Queue: 4 jobs
Job 1
Amino acid sequence: MPDESSASKRGYLREDFRLFHLKDSRAQKLEYHYHEFDKIILLLRGKVTYVVEGVTYFLRPWDLLLVQHNLIHRPIIDPSEPYERVVIWLGSDWLAVRSDPGEPLSTCFDITRERGFHLLRVSPDRRLVYMQLIQELEQSLHSGEFGHRREADTLCQQMLIAVNRDALKDRTAQEQTDSYRVDPKIEEILRYILEHLAEDLTVDALAKRFYLSRYYLMHRFKDITGYTLHQYISQKRLLQAGELIRSGLPVMKAAEQSGYTEYSTFLRAFQNTFHVSPREFQK
């Protein structure tokens, strides 16, 4: 479970994208965390459960998990089998530059976030497509031949096109109730929080709105998400403020639109989370 200091940011992406092919014989224990980039996880083998924003996914080999930036998540790894996966980190600037008008390559992440469902389970024939693309992308990234960087860039775009096409038309995994677990009431509360970060989100206000006892809400929320209600709301407000600041909105406005009425409280929380001041973060 996360401690009172909230989830940590993991990983820095200084390239356009990165691919990792990882094999672990020992299960690592990872706490809740988030990234400032989008991430695709393709499970090749092993037993792993992923918790993303309060929804628990039971992954099977060749499942794709799409985790958009700033989503809080963590894996729970069964040590009885080696855990092998391909992970692709994707920079937002690269995604934007490589997108065509009306067809952003980030569509697949937007769709899964709107659905509140991040698992993509593809058919056997589509697995062959992904297998070939990943093999070619890995070979290109490790090649020193002429044009290998541009070739890798093109292959990563092809991978994203395939993921987007499947995300737009396939909801098979969402129909398979054994592939995930979710509490409908907590899911409703999570959606409400994300859409009303600037409003009153105290425990009492939420309990009253959703006709729950204060005690039940606090304990059920922690059981499902791994977070206290206060931790989760604080984290989401700070992440939204960071995005607004990075987009060019004045710091005071970003704090206000993210639900902070006192600038001193916002400043202290922001520095504790990002380890820089808002103005340094903006630069």
Job 2
Amino acid sequence: MPTKAPGELPGVEQGSGRTVVLVHGYPVNHTVWTGQLSGLSKVCHVVALDLPGYGLASHVPVPDTLAGFSASVHATLLARFRGPVVIVGHSFGGYILLELVRSHPEVVEAVVLANTRAEADSPEAREKRFATVRTLEDPAGEFDVEATAKGLVAPSTWAAQGPIARTVRELVANAPRAAMIGSLRAMAGRPDLTPVLGSIRVPAVVVWGEEDQLIPTPQSRSMVARIPASRGVGIPSVGHLSCLEAPDTFNLAVTELLDRLGPLRA
């Protein structure tokens, strides 16, 4: 059921046992984790948060820095959970997770970095984000929903125009502009987080889609060698939204990580 306590990021939770917190990317919301809420809740307590401005958190002020988004997640973890938790960060959520590991490693029991990378934006990529910001800030600006949605999934998934493509198109079309603008500014301004990888001392798994059109698979794959206790999982025929396109395979990667942690201590 939705969580609505004051001062916390809202979201949806299911299941019991060890807590796994899911942090979505840009420009979607907690509903992208439907397959994880239904699947992983059989083995753990799953909490799918909405970042500021998105979904159930549309009322929460939107920051424009990575540190600001990370602080909102950190405050929620402190308010809701008594100890460290497993955190799954997808894309922008992965950047937030790395910043959280850098600033507050004590709240993290294990990490899943999905369809993300550690490097900062190139100057070209940064300018492209700012160009999108200018479009979104212009009341007459026409944001290209189709192109954005198409880039989030594998080419074959988009060509099929099935339920996944329709879901992604709807998520992008309904994303609040304020949330998108804040996220784009935060992503464009984020630092190089590569040094954080070597500092991760908890079990980790890196997941990527072999047909990710937004983050080259070599960048995701390269993180595995830099994180001491990590494993890599590449999912064939899947794009940027691996959790949505291949939920069973994605869930298996998370479940295997939970197995590595052993029984939950009372």
Job 3
Amino acid sequence: MLQFDPDREPVTPKDAATVAVVRETPLGVEVFCVQRHTRSGFLGGAVVFPGGKVDATDRSEHWQDLTTDLTARARSFAEDESTARSFAVAALRELLEEAAILAVEGADLDAEQTAELRRELSEPAAGEPQAHAFAALLRARGLKADTRRLEPLAHWITPIAESRRYDTRFYILPLPGRQQGAHDQHETTASFWATPRDVLGRWERGEIFLAPPTSRTLQILLPASDIESAIAIARAQTLEPVCPFFTLDGDQAVLALPGDPLHPRPTPAPEDPDAPTRFVLLDGRFVGRRAV
């Protein structure tokens, strides 16, 4: 699932984006989760939020006409607006591919329509390269991807001890209109809606596997009682990149976060007393702890 080697030669992380889609229910705020295929090369079988790598076509300047304006926080994810937009485009493209969810400006799509859009995205028209299918799909339907609705939440970078590394921007997105979400039976083999507390409970009981960025995101969203408070929580988070450092504390495998004494980056520990400074491997799970 995760294969850390402290002696591994570092590889350059690939840009990626992921989206925690949330909705309000009588039980509280729920988040949409998908389970990665067990044969996936990275985090196979893990429960994650929909997302994936930034494609070269996500960086095209043509997206200026096919997207809404980014928020100031979303623009801060990169040094230039074009790069920041590419993260948001990748987030929505991967969300459609893996979850049949798409935020568009001025249209109330339902589950049947997004399922059809996903089918067309996976089977582009004759003569249309797969790489350009998302932009072509939106242009043909007269749709504009609503990147403005993506609320930045966090920025995680895979530890250098991993062979597959990603520089990932995390967003939160309120579920658009009448959409429902559905896994794609290819990259993702199962999906479900649940409160952050319920997902964490399944993880604590060993029923599912969560990577540290996913479990931490769910913990951050625990206090959310509605969409408004979930967005407020996201806006209160730092967007400074978090790159855990794999090391040993005695015989204990540890992923130290910036601010932990075991992390080589000399930054202060989080002021939030509930925020972990490290993840400790216990019974096959990396569990958040604060250094003592």
Job 4
Amino acid sequence: MAVIDKIARIWKIKDLRNKILFVFVMLVIFRFAAHIPIPGVNIENLKNLFSQSQFLGLLNVFSGGALSNFSVVMLGVAPYITSSIIFQLLTMIVPRLQEIQKDGEAGQRKINKWQRWLTVPLAIAQSYATITLLQQAGQGIIGQLTAMQYASAIITITAGCVFLMWIGELITEKNIGNGISLLIFAGIIAGIPTALQQTALTFDSSKLPEIIVFLAVALVTVVGVVVINEARRNIPVNYARQIRGNKMYGGTSTHLPLKVNQAGVIPIIFAISFVLFPPLVAQFFSSSSVTWLATFATWLGNLFNNPWFYASFYFILVVAFTYFYTAVIFKPDEIAENLQKQGAFVPGIRPGEPTADYLQKTSSRILLTGALFLGIIAVLPYALQSVGTVQTMVVGGTSLLIVVSVVIETVKQIESQLVMRDYEGF
């Protein structure tokens, strides 16, 4: 009943209701665009190719099925995510970008503008690579294209990527979840009815144990992601007493919450972007006329087809990106400086640099647990697949990580807006 009451409250608040409806309409537009194909492609042969390739199947999931339809938004938001990764790396090593980032909202707007600009050439390169890859795959998917047809297809695909980037930013501005994450979420959810239909059509009693294992892993994954997202370490903080005139201020105690996984779902998205790149390059160069290059590409492709190597590499990337993204968003120096300005201190720790060091050490210690647990959850379906579980387990496990995390993040943002309106008397 509490859930129903909360939904009723959300619906009664006109501003919040309009925001949610706007996000829903944007996601519907995205799904509609995912079914608008680019001319000149044999869709049936393309879907057969995707059903035969685990790598292409995973890539298709995160485009929301748009890639298997060869639609105008077939790239999804992958180029924009890649652009974001590049700028976050540059921000850590380029002093000028660090200074711009410290300018606050104005600096972040400038960096976001550069990210959008970089997305365009990345989308052009990825669309060209995808078309060429599908041509090399044979099976009559894409015939020979004229220069004009090639250019038209690349421009259309790039425009579709920019369109999704724009939709994602519009959604983010409404403070109802992260727009890019919600687009990926919508793409994953859209594939569930088809997956259930295929499972029902091909069901037989011999697959029942595998389905039970899959459901058990899904439940463990959901519980694990919720636990990691909600777990936090509370750092005690005291405020020094200040006397102003005849009144005394401060002297209160509170806490500074440090989340076990501060990066949320972003490490998973980053890891998937990186883990999909080597096999894509390998397939692209496997038919090269240069012997050593074709041999290396074939070896690399076979390496990533090994489930143990694939899972290990994925695990390492998830852990590494959890630490990386936390280092980007968690600034112990700034937190320590703000605490000192407010007359606050951590009991037993001197203000300033010692406080920053203490926060950094504490964050790193609890983050190790969060990163390892998140990595284990990510690769658990791969490990079970190697002992005979269903092939869709790999996609299902990775998808659940994103779906659950996005739902938690979105629900929290909606609840924060409800709380804000309660305080403001709406």
